[in-house]
Structure formats: structure tokens, C-alpha cells
Amino acid sequence: MWDWFVDLLRTVLQSLAQFSGDWGLAIIILTVIIRLLVMPLMTKSTASSARMQALQPKMKEIQERYADDPERQSEELRKFYAENKFNPLGGCLPIIIQMPVFFALFTVAKQVPADAHFLGILPSLSTSAADMFAQHGIAGSWVYILLDLLFGVLTFIPMMMNLNNTAEDQRKTTLTMGAVMAVMMLWFGWSVPGAVLLYYDTSAVWQVIQQKIVTQRVMDKVKRETEASLANQPVKVDVVRKEKKPRPHKKG
Q1: Per the count of CB atoms within 10 A, which of 67, 75, 180, 200 is most buried?
Q2: What is the tens place of the pLDDT at every residue in 107-121?
Q3: pTM of the model
């Protein structure tokens, strides 16, 4: 099944290369097509994340209220999820489903022909920035280096854009993780073929644009709707009946 899917993407990429006359353009077009196809899944994942953020204060309240009674805590959380039609795994499933697609596209991008190029900007899509630098120095590899730096920056930007949706006490951790991730991507991008770097840059640019235009609007809309729904829910009061104690009898 996996080989069949990779072969399908490879055939599509070859057809796009023949149509456009350029392997680099074909990679960009195929990446955009894949991104368009998985956008509904990403939107669903975003909506689930936004709903979870809006419900988080109430969930925390339930957890604290029944901290000494794990069974009751789980029961109340299940009721709360059911009342608000929320699935805690709803944000993970779309991401899990689309991961094989991106791994397959990564595999295909690594297999471009040795003479594949991108509009004369990248003379060889099968060569890495590291190899170009070793062979031609900065003068012959500066475009590859630039694409690698762009990949690191574009990895960091979405995390920065998401700070407004992050709790105050978690922002420092998010920034640190973003910086570490950007450095890791720079290291990774340095040694992969130019075709893979072009694919990742295209995908990262799409991610930034999507987060700016689509993701934030979806999150704001879902948060407003969820908060309004919570505000309209009746207030629940836990009634704890006192144990009846026998009245003392007067001594005769």
C-alpha cells in the first residue's frame, strides 16, 4: 500500500515536471496540491484545538474539584465532553492521518533525477547545501544556504504567531521549543537534497500563510462559539446531603 502511494505521487510529479518543463516547479505545484487536499483535516484539527483552549478553564476546575476522587473526576469530565460535543483526541487524528502523505512526498522529493533543476536558480535538486558548499564554496551554494536559513525561520514563525493562543506561563517554553526546533531544521536542511529543501520551504510558506489567513480566524470563531455555549449552560451545584444523626434522648 505504501509503495503504491509513493509510486502514485512519483508519477504525478513526473507528469507535472513534463507539463511545466521544470522539476522545481513540479515540486512546488505538487506540494500546494497536497496542502489543499489536507486543508480540511488541518481546519478540523485547528477547530478542535481552539475548542480545547476555550474549555480548558472548566476542565481544570473539574479536575481540581474532584482531585481526591479520580473516579468521580473521570465521570464528570466524560459528562462535560459529551455536553460540549468535544473529543480530546479530535485534534490529533487529522494530523496522524496526514503524516503518511507528507512522508511519501518527502520520499518522492528525494528521488528526483540527478539533472533536475529549478529555473536555473538551483542547478541540481539532487544535491544538498552541504555538498554544494564543499564543491563550490559560498559563491556556488549561497542559494542553497539561503533556502536552508529560510526553512529554519519559517519553522519558527508559526510558533511565534501562535503565542497569542498560549497561556502566559507557557510562552517562554514555547519560544524555547521554537528556537530549538528552528536550529534542528537548519541542521536537517543542510544535508538533504535541494528538492527536499524546496518542498519543505514551500510547505512552510503555505503553513505561515494558512495560519495568518485561515487558522487564526477558525480559532477565534470556535473560541467565541464555545465560550458562548459555556456561558449559556445552567450552573450546576453539587448537593451533598448531610448524614442524619440520631437525636439525643433526654434522660428520664
Answers
A1: 200
A2: 888 888 888 999 888
A3: 0.73
